[in-house]
Design goal:
The protein is mainly alpha-helical and about 375 residues long. It has two domains: about 1-175, Up-down Bundle (Growth Hormone, Chain: A); about 195-375, MFS general substrate transporter like domains (Growth Hormone, Chain: A, Up-down Bundle), CATH 1.20.1250.20. Helix content is about 85%, strand content about 0%. The chain has 13 helices and no strands. The protein has helices at about 1-35, 35-65, 65-85, 90-105, 105-120, 125-150, 155-175, 195-200, 205-230, 235-260, 265-285, 290-320, 325-375. The longest helix has about 50 residues, at about 325-375.
């Protein structure tokens, strides 16, 4: 597990830096323009870049030595982060953020595809849990760190430069791993869309990925409806921050539990995790007070964290090493599309059906995901 710890530590460092830099990006763009449209443009640039880069990123992870892919991805991201530190113009920052997203895209599918080769099949559940725990911690702590640095007087450029340093640190940790990461044989599985084709024809993979996408539709709706819910409950921005933090903190709990629960079978655990998500969202959207709503968000976050680990484990078990990175890239691309569509639709749904109606819709998505994961078709 020492190899997994080093890989997880690299993700913790770089994702923390990236999450902090995202806060700095939004603050810088809005501070210079005083326009929510520029903020939306920055978010849009990141989302579109993720979707467009997904298929090529997966192909790269199967075509070349994955250790080299991780190193090049980190170094490219560091270079782009330095470029962001050297400019303050909103348009340049938005464009560079899109480029940064593209540079980072090969890392996640290649590292997930390489993990079974690095730790062995018997340790994969524990390794996935460890990586998920550190990733959740980074997504929880990174925004808090970014906000604290800016509040303490650090410039956005300084945060971007620090982000570049985190990518370099991740590079050194990858370099310290001497085991083979694996590489694809594209002659046997040609094309950037080979992973998507495998998902389409393999029943278990198809069921798991579709369930995950449906679940993320609910997560996207909640991302929009959480702030209005907090206002309705009289908790305002502070309550919204607590809801967001507990959603991430719950993910930490779910990911930590995964190491033990996966022994019962990842597909069974996936059903339970989506069920827990439905229960948590139902609680958060139904209660008249903020404290039980926060408890519901923590339960939903735990379900989401557990589902992420279980879904990753199923893909690693069912996808051949030669095509595994492309399968992860296809799954990640579908997830980005689902979350984006849900986030856009969530505002309209909240306006038409109210906050409670939006949470009811998100609950229905999580319940439908559990039914899909449980089905045998």
């Amino acid at each position: 597990m020492g190899v997994a710890r080093r890989l997880a530590l690299g993700r913790l460092i770089s994702l923390t830096g990236g999450s902090a830099a995202y806060i700095a990006l939004i603050a810088s763009v809005y501070g210079r323009t005083q326009s929510a449209l520029w903020v939306a443009a920055a978010i849009f640039a990141g989302v579109v870049s993720s979707v467009v880069a997904a298929a090529p990123a997966g192909w790269i992870g199967d075509r070349f030595d994955r250790r080299l892919v991780l190193i090049c991805s980190d170094l490219a991201a560091a270079a782009v982060s330095i470029a962001m530190a050297l400019t303050g113009r909103p348009l340049a920052l938005v464009v560079l953020f899109g480029v940064l997203t593209v540079a980072e895209s090969p890392f996640e599918p290649a590292s997930a595809a390489a993990l079974p080769n690095l730790v062995g099949r018997d340790q994969i559940g524990r390794a996935n849990s460890l990586v998920a725990v550190t990733s959740s911690a980074a997504y929880l702590g990174g925004p808090l760190l970014g906000g604290a640095l800016l509040a303490a007087g650090a410039s956005a450029a300084a945060v971007f430069a620090a982000n570049a340093a985190t990518f370099v640190a991740s590079t050194f940790l990858v370099l310290s791993i001497r085991r083979p990461f694996g590489t694809g044989e594209t002659a046997a599985h040609p094309g950037a869309l080979a992973g998507l084709r495998l998902i389409a024809r393999e029943p278990t993979l198809r069921r798991v990925v579709v369930a995950g996408v449906v679940s993320l539709l609910g997560v996207g709706i909640v991302g929009v409806a959480s702030y209005p819910l907090s206002v309705e409950l009289g908790a305002g921005a502070r309550g919204y921050g607590a809801m967001t933090a507990l959603l991430g903190g719950g993910g930490l709990i779910g990911a930590a539990l995964a190491a033990r629960l996966l022994r019962l079978g990842p597909q069974r655990v996936l059903v339970w995790s989506f069920g827990a998500g439905a229960a948590g969202l139902a609680l958060a959207g139904a209660v008249p007070a903020v404290v039980p709503a926060l408890a519901g968000m923590a339960i939903a976050g735990a379900g989401r964290g557990l589902a992420d680990v279980a879904e990753t484990t199923v893909i690693q078990e069912r996808a051949d090493d030669r095509i595994r990175s492309r399968v992860f890239a296809a799954q990640e691309g579908a997830a980005h599309v689902a979350y984006s569509v849900a986030a856009l639709a969530g505002g309209l749904l909240t306006e038409l059906a109210g906050v409670r109606g939006a949470f009811a819709a998100a609950t229905a998505c999580a319940a439908a995901a559990a039914l899909i994961a449980r089905s045998r078709s």
